[in-house]
């Protein structure tokens, strides 16, 4: 990405916003273009600045982060929205991912890691640690309605699409999927794009959770 990565920070605590501005502003390729104190203001910032990444706190007065994520992900060509939270908020995080969040970060993430993870999100990849993924998938597996919906959606996929979806559920990259299934990366990318539309998933992470719910990936 030749232009700076444009970031919007959303948190109801001004000190948190200032802290994140300082950390991200230290990277030459990242620019914090604005900050907001609730989900409604976040949507306005996204429309105004067209950022690449939004860091969204989940618990805020007024319009909360979950609602903000839903609204942003319904915009044309939405940015990657990464939830900011703590590990004691698994249920909120799971809802955020189902709403379209591209992953989540705990607020205690070290500064050097935060910068790298923002770059990862800007490149269209999932921002989710292995430990977090295990906990979220466990929570996902407890929701009977989600499992039923996932099974119904998967029935409409071709055998090859199911293979690709299973790989997404295992957290594989396009390159890894291509190697496993003996396909080109371009073909894998095409499959993934079509499946996201077919399954009404906002991103790879949502599709991966759906694969888990459908029983394609063992617990």
UniProtKB/TrEMBL annotation:
SUPFAM superfamilies (UniProt xref): C-terminal effector domain of the bipartite response regulators, CheY-like
GO molecular function, one term: DNA binding
Residues covered by the HTH luxR-type domain: 150-215
Gene3D superfamilies: 3.40.50.2300
The keyword Manganese belongs to this UniProt entry's keyword annotation: no
Keywords carried by this UniProt record: DNA-binding, Phosphoprotein, Transcription, Transcription regulation
Residue span, Response regulatory domain: 6-122
UniProt cross-references to Pfam families, sorted A to Z: GerE, Response_reg
The keyword Transcription regulation is annotated on this UniProt entry: yes
InterPro entries: CheY-like_superfamily (IPR011006), NreC/VraR/RcsB-like_REC (IPR058245), Sig_transdc_resp-reg_C-effctor (IPR016032), Sig_transdc_resp-reg_receiver (IPR001789), Tscrpt_reg_LuxR_C (IPR000792), WalR-like (IPR039420)
GO-annotated biological processes: phosphorelay signal transduction system; regulation of DNA-templated transcription
Residue positions, PTM 4-aspartylphosphate: 57
PANTHER family, alphabetized: TRANSCRIPTIONAL REGULATORY PROTEIN NARL-RELATED, TWO-COMPONENT RESPONSE REGULATOR
Protein name, as recorded: Two component transcriptional regulator, LuxR family
Organism the protein comes from: Saccharopolyspora shandongensis
Taxonomic path: Bacteria, Bacillati, Actinomycetota, Actinomycetes, Pseudonocardiales
């Amino acid at each position: 990405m030749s232009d700076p990565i444009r970031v919007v920070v959303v948190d109801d605590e001004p000190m948190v916003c200032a802290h994140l501005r300082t950390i991200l502003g230290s990277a030459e390729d990242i620019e914090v273009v604005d900050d907001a104190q609730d989900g409604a203001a976040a949507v306005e910032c996204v429309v105004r600045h067209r950022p690449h990444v939004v860091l969204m706190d989940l618990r805020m007065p007024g319009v909360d982060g979950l609602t903000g994520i839903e609204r942003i992900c319904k915009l044309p060509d939405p940015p990657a929205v990464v939830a900011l939270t703590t590990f004691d908020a698994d249920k909120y995080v799971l809802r955020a991912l189902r709403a379209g969040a591209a992953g989540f970060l705990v607020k205690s993430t070290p500064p050097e890691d935060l910068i790298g993870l923002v770059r990862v999100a800007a490149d269209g990849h999932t921002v989710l640690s292995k430990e977090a993924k295990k906990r979220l998938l466990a929570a996902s597996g407890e929701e009977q309605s989600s499992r039923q919906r996932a099974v119904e959606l998967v029935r409409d996929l071709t055998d090859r699409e199911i293979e690709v979806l299973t790989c997404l559920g295992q957290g594989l990259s396009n390159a890894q999927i291509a190697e496993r299934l003996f396909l080109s990366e371009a073909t894998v990318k095409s499959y993934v794009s079509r499946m996201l539309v077919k399954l009404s998933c906002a991103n790879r992470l949502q599709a991966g959770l759906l694969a888990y719910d459908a029983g394609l990936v063992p617990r």
